[in-house]
Design goal:
With 110 residues, the protein is mostly helical. The protein contains four helices and no strands. The model has no long low-confidence stretch (mean pLDDT 88).
């Protein structure tokens, strides 16, 4: 454009400026399209990641429910354990008691 302007060919210089402006506008459109594509790609990747996270969370909830005991089951287990411990203590006490007449026999031998 500067070359044509220097040669006093204003119409050719204007044509060059219009062409330059057209190319600049085209570059801006392409850049905007690229930005839109990058935005869409990031949104798609984010959506896929969120779906993966949700799938893992759903699987973990399912597994937790399968392995989880109810409060009633835990209470029954606790009662069973307490009964077993009480029974074992009673057995320990019975075994620790001297046998009937066992102490008398030891005294006589001494």
């Amino acid at each position: 454009a500067a070359e044509w302007n220097a040669k006093k060919n204003k119409s050719r210089a204007l044509q060059c400026l219009k062409k330059k402006k057209m190319y600049e506008q085209e570059i801006e459109k392409i850049q905007a399209q690229c930005m839109n594509l990058m935005t869409l790609q990031m949104a798609q990747e984010n959506s896929a990641r969120q779906n993966d996270i949700l799938a893992v969370q759903q699987e973990q909830v399912k597994k937790l429910k399968q392995t989880q005991m109810s409060a009633e089951q835990v209470e029954n287990l606790k009662e069973d354990l307490e009964d077993a411990m009480a029974n074992q203590q009673e057995i320990d006490q019975l075994l620790a008691e001297p046998l009937a007449g066992g102490t008398d026999m030891l005294d006589e031998d001494d």
